[in-house]
Design brief:
The chain is an all-alpha fold and 335 residues long. The protein contains 14 helices and no strands.
Length: 335
Amino acid sequence: MSERSQHFPIIASYLLAGVALLLVLHAGLLAALYAGLLVYALVHLLAPRLGRQGSHRARLVAVASLGSLIVVTLTLAIWGALSFFLSDEGSLPVLMKKMADLIDQSRHQIPAWLAAYLPQSAEALQQWLTDWMRDHAAQATQFSQQAGRVLVHLLIGMVIGAMAALYDTTRVHHYRPLAAAMHQRVVRLHESFRQIVFAQVRIAAINAVFTGIFLAVALPLAGAHLPFVKTMIVITFVAGLLPVLGNLISNTVIVVVSLSHSLSVALVALLFLVTIHKLEYFLNAKIIGTQIDARAWELLSAMLVMEAIFGIPGVVAAPVFYAYVKHELSAAGMV
């Protein structure tokens, strides 16, 4: 086989992988892709613990049972999160209304130079949110009106990921050149996803734990009892799954709600959050940066460009897609 014919399957696999990722974003299949990769990664992580003793049939049943358990567990977790945010205790619309009221009520506690940058009233903030939603109507439609479709994509993606992992972990494969090259692309995408997502989950969990201690323990001991504590802790964890920008979302919510008590509590909360996120940047550099050799500014730049091209889905896709591209370039000796 000539050198040219040896390289053709590899080049073709790169082109097919690039087209596939663009189609995922264009067709709104990012939720299905991430769900599938998550289940695939979890099965690959846990399947070796089952051992290789026993017959092929026994291992097949064990891995299939593991994949089914993971799918059911993730489905229940998604259902539980949705139920919480739709409940009275964790209702996001109620929280947003409360934040608007707090800004309005706390205006007299805020320095004049800072108040000038805030909405003039709760109604003004509500109008700003309405205008923002109108400007992002396409993304809002995808994430609200088509919520049922996204949930179906999540379920189908998890099933596909479980089936793919079952196939990979229970058989010995002999791929032809193009199939082998495509499999290598999938493996590297999976590795990039695992590195980014699993590391970010650990960082978000650490962030949520410290934030929970601050909101539910430290502030009450100091006599400051804030509303929506549970909701803010959950938002801190969920938003923390998104590198860099997630911090801005959760920090804004916590500081605004802290104004319901006093300006001093809000300033203490801001100081605490800045300190925690300095620790988080260290964790990002240690956990994520050492694995994909990427800094926070690189991820933020990728998210900015992807948002400009693909909107909100681009922000969510950017960290994993950027890590994948860098992984491929690094493996090729180009970076």
